[in-house]
Amino acid sequence: MSLERRGFLAAGLGFLSLPTLQLFAEDVHRKYRIGACDWSVGKQQHIDAFAVAKEIGLDGIQASFGRPGGDFDLRDEQVRQAYQKAGEETGVQIASLAMGILNSVPFAVEDAAVEWVSQCIDVMAAMGQKIVLLAFFGKGDIRGKPDLQDEVIRRLKRLAPKAERAGVILGIESYLNADDHLRILEGIGSPAVQVYYDVANMHYSGYDIFAELRQLGRERICQIHLKESGCLLGKGPIDFVKVRDVLGEIGYYDWLIIEGATEKDRSVVDCYKDNCRYVKELFATS
């Protein structure tokens, strides 16, 4: 920046009130970090996700936590150390964990799934991680099933105290609308259980995503998926400019995790370079 430019900005800021200057200073530090799901970049539960994320230009990855004994099982301390080393070497962070395994081993009905979530809490505490996505799709879908929703409340209510002690958040990602999500959160009554909000899932389910984001509020949303179906971000029906504006309105300045959003006949890496560039241009990023 030239000296003339600096002088112009300094003179202009002199006309601003103290509260306005304070707000301006705060906004400077409100930066988003951009990540992607490891499965979306073709490296589900695999350490190579770090290298691919670096090639794309991402700040982080969402790392999968699966069934015991799988490849790169984070229950294993040596695997955790390998992930830490990969993060240090690539400069790519772990943005959060995700339990997509719950789509095939439903949390609401399988006792093993509850035990795995409990184990994941221990792993997050060991890794210094704060958020895990609990998936409720496929066999685990609880939409329109109040009995299963009630069982989810009972099971998460048992796990919530452990999550609170560990300082971690269990994020529910599902096809439920905001009202149903709020009913579950209120039934559990713990800040350790929040909503993992996916704008595409909610949009394509027919919900008003902007009203829902406002209704849930920052205190109930742990993390955000930016996703599209069959096209890149910004080329489909979801208004990401308005998503950005509403996230700022509710005070969400945290990880934005890209999922899906690929085009036919193009590599995942090339698609994600475009997605990453789009998000960085649209959102204030570090």
Give a description of the structure:
The chain has 286 residues and is of the alpha/beta class. It has helices at 3-13, 18-28, 49-56, 77-90, 111-127, 146-166, 178-188, 199-204, 209-216, 240-250, 268-282, and strands at residues 33-37, 60-64, 93-99, 131-136, 169-174, 193-198, 221-228, 255-260. The chain has an eight-stranded parallel β-barrel with strand order 1-2-3-4-5-6-7-8, surrounded by five helices. Strand 1, helix 3 and strand 2 (60-64) form a beta-alpha-beta unit. Helix 5 (111-127) runs parallel beside helix 6 and helix 6 (146-166) packs across helix 7.
Which properties best describe this structure?
single chain; 286 residues; alpha/beta; eight-stranded parallel barrel; 8 strands
Helix and strand element order: HHEHEHEHEHEHEHHEHEH
Biggest β-sheet: count, sense, barrel? 8 strands, parallel, barrel
Number of helices: 11
Mean pLDDT over the residues: 91
Structural category is alpha/beta
Give the amount of beta strand, in percent: 15-25%
Through-space gap between termini: 19 Å
In angstroms, what is the radius of gyration?
A: 20 Å
- State the total count of DSSP E strands: 8
Unreliable runs? 1-28
Order of strands across the widest beta sheet?
A: 1-2-3-4-5-6-7-8
Q: Give the proportion of residues in helices.
A: 40-55%
How would the global form be characterised? globular
